[in-house]
Every structure is written in C-alpha cells, then in structure tokens.
UniProtKB/TrEMBL annotation:
<keyword id="KW-1003">Cell membrane</keyword>
<comment type="subunit">
    <text>The Tat system comprises two distinct complexes: a TatABC complex, containing multiple copies of TatA, TatB and TatC subunits, and a separate TatA complex, containing only TatA subunits. Substrates initially bind to the TatABC complex, which probably triggers association of the separate TatA complex to form the active translocon.</text>
</comment>
<keyword id="KW-0653">Protein transport</keyword>
<comment type="function">
    <text>Part of the twin-arginine translocation (Tat) system that transports large folded proteins containing a characteristic twin-arginine motif in their signal peptide across membranes. TatA could form the protein-conducting channel of the Tat system.</text>
</comment>
<keyword id="KW-0812">Transmembrane</keyword>
<feature type="compositionally biased region" description="Basic and acidic residues">
    <location>
        <begin position="83"/>
        <end position="93"/>
    </location>
</feature>
<dbReference type="InterPro" id="IPR003369">
    <property type="entry name" value="TatA/B/E"/>
</dbReference>
<dbReference type="Pfam" id="PF02416">
    <property type="entry name" value="TatA_B_E"/>
</dbReference>
<feature type="region of interest" description="Disordered">
    <location>
        <begin position="59"/>
        <end position="105"/>
    </location>
</feature>
<comment type="similarity">
    <text>Belongs to the TatA/E family.</text>
</comment>
<dbReference type="InterPro" id="IPR006312">
    <property type="entry name" value="TatA/E"/>
</dbReference>
<protein>
    <recommendedName>
        <fullName>Sec-independent protein translocase protein TatA</fullName>
    </recommendedName>
</protein>
<keyword id="KW-0813">Transport</keyword>
<keyword id="KW-1133">Transmembrane helix</keyword>
<keyword id="KW-0472">Membrane</keyword>
<keyword id="KW-0811">Translocation</keyword>
<feature type="compositionally biased region" description="Low complexity">
    <location>
        <begin position="94"/>
        <end position="105"/>
    </location>
</feature>
Length: 105
C-alpha cells in the first residue's frame, strides 16, 4: 500500500477535523507510548522463547532416560470425590518423586 502526498494530507486533515488541533499532540504521545509498550512486551516474549529453547536443549540427558512410571486408569466412577482426589494426589506425588530421581546424577 503506497501512500502518496495527497493521501497523507487527506488523512491529516481528517485527523484534525476529528480530534481538533489541541488534542493531536496528546493523541500522538499516547500512540507512541502504546507502541513502545507493545514492542517491549513482544521483545520479552521473544527473549522468553529463546530462554526456553536454550534450557530445553541443555536439559536433554546424554544417557537413555528411564521409562516413565505407569499411569493408572482413571478412578472408578463409584469412588467419592474425596477418594478420587486422594488417589490423584498420591499419583502426582509418585510422578514428582520419579521426576526428581531422574534429575539426580
């Protein structure tokens, strides 16, 4: 999309008519701040992605990893909600312990 001088002048005239000459500097300042914040946030996202990729590459072990612990089937529907929650918590604790054991040399 190429904007020539006539189109730019038309856009500026429309802005002056819509917002008034006194509010245009405030409007431009607000747009500039918004763009600055947007650029900062997108660069943080890119930095976070780069950091995640670097840690994933470094975290790969050289030896063959141990097979993950077997997951049990979903709790039977006849169990109460408390019993299901307790079984899931036990399973999560076992998975955490196995993950920590894999991290140790």
């Amino acid at each position: 999309m190429n904007l020539g001088p006539p189109e730019i002048i038309l856009i500026l005239v429309a802005l002056v008519l819509l917002f008034g000459a006194k509010k245009l500097p405030d409007l431009a300042r607000g747009v500039g701040r918004s763009l600055r914040i947007f650029k900062a946030e997108t660069s943080k996202l890119n930095d976070d992605d780069d950091d995640n990729k670097a840690t994933v590459v470094q975290a790969q072990p050289q030896a063959q990893p141990a097979p993950p612990p077997q997951l049990h089937a979903a709790p039977a529907p006849e169990l109460s909600a408390e019993e299901q929650a307790r079984k899931l918590e036990e399973q999560a604790a076992r998975l955490r312990a196995a993950a920590q054991a894999d991290k140790r040399p």
